[in-house]
Design goal:
The chain has a domain at 1-63. It is 35% helix and 22% strand. It is built from eleven helices and twelve strands. The strands form three sheets. It has a six-stranded parallel beta sheet. Helix 10 links the parallel strand 11 (243-247) and strand 12. Helix 2 (83-91) packs antiparallel against helix 3 and helix 3 runs antiparallel to helix 4. The longest helix has 15 residues, at 204-218.
């Protein structure tokens, strides 16, 4: 059997759902339940084409499923919001900034120019708002901490790489358990945001560079990497990774991803690797 079909859903995967999918593949193996929300089975031949409401159905190779590096985007991936949009709310310009963010994540705008424009609209905002924003607006997405801490426990490297800001990645990284994090740095003068970000801007290429550097440091290759994100600036790292996952993603990213998740929490990234719930780290 050369391929694995993985069904995941935050609402649960029933045996009936599994039979409906496996029924399209005559020579599939007996389905294996990884948890209440994940089931897998191996098969050869044509991929099943059934579409089940509220269930993600992804096909992954049987070989090299366990990954040695998790590299993840932060905004709208590990957390449910875009930090820059939330900061803009405190500055009274959220609608304008959120529109630019959405277009940038769809790949319609140059990322560096888009971040310069958005940060410029935050000029004069008190640096105290950063902590207030984190305290009031930032939470982990469901399954984020379990994902990261399980990968750590299984010996993988975990890295949070963001086109956002290091004020937030340092805190979210600690909350989730990431071993390393990187992001852009907001410039502050006399207790207020200057409206500028430290150069060079860390965007799509910086994420790809981080992936390659971590691979070099760890002595493994891109095939050993699980990369996950949601926007166009995640495209390069997701496309090169052995398992590239689009999480509630824009079409520009979903088009190049190995797997797409729209109905599952982040523990589905463990299920895609064949890791059962019994191996999940406790939080």
């Amino acid at each position: 059997m050369s391929k694995i079909c993985v069904l995941t859903s935050a609402m649960g995967v029933s045996d009936t759902m599994v039979r409906e999918v496996a029924g399209q593949v005559p020579d599939s193996t007996t389905p294996k339940r990884l948890s209440d929300v994940a089931v897998e089975f191996a098969f050869d031949g044509e991929n099943p084409t059934v579409d089940l409401p509220q269930v993600d159905i992804n096909i992954v190779p049987t070989q090299n499923r366990r990954k040695k590096l998790l590299i993840a985007d932060m905004d709208s991936t590990m957390i449910p919001v875009e930090c820059i949009d939330e900061l803009a709310d405190f500055a009274g310009v959220k609608e304008r900034v959120a529109d630019i963010t959405e277009r940038a994540m769809r790949g319609e705008l140059d990322f560096e120019a888009a971040i310069d424009e958005r940060v410029g609209l935050l000029a004069g905002l008190s640096e105290d708002v950063l902590q207030r924003c984190y305290d009031e607006r930032i939470t982990l997405n469901p399954g984020a901490a379990v994902l990261v801490r399980t990968m750590n426990a299984l010996g993988a490297m975990t890295a949070l790489v963001s086109g956002g800001f290091d004020f937030f990645t340092s805190r979210v990284g600690t909350d989730a358990g990431f071993q390393v994090n990187q992001a852009n740095h907001l410039l502050i003068d006399a207790g207020k945001l200057t409206g500028q970000v430290q150069k060079p801007v860390l965007g799509q290429q910086a994420k790809l560079d981080a992936l390659h550097q971590l691979c070099t440091n760890g002595g493994y290759g891109p095939a050993d990497v699980l990369a996950v994100g949601d926007g166009a600036n995640d495209r390069a790292m997701v496309e090169v990774a052995g398992l590239g996952v689009a999480y509630h993603a824009k079409p520009a990213l979903a088009a190049v991803a190995t797997a797409q998740l729209y109905h599952s929490d982040l523990t589905a990234l463990l299920s895609l690797q064949g890791i059962p719930e019994s191996k999940f780290a406790t939080i």
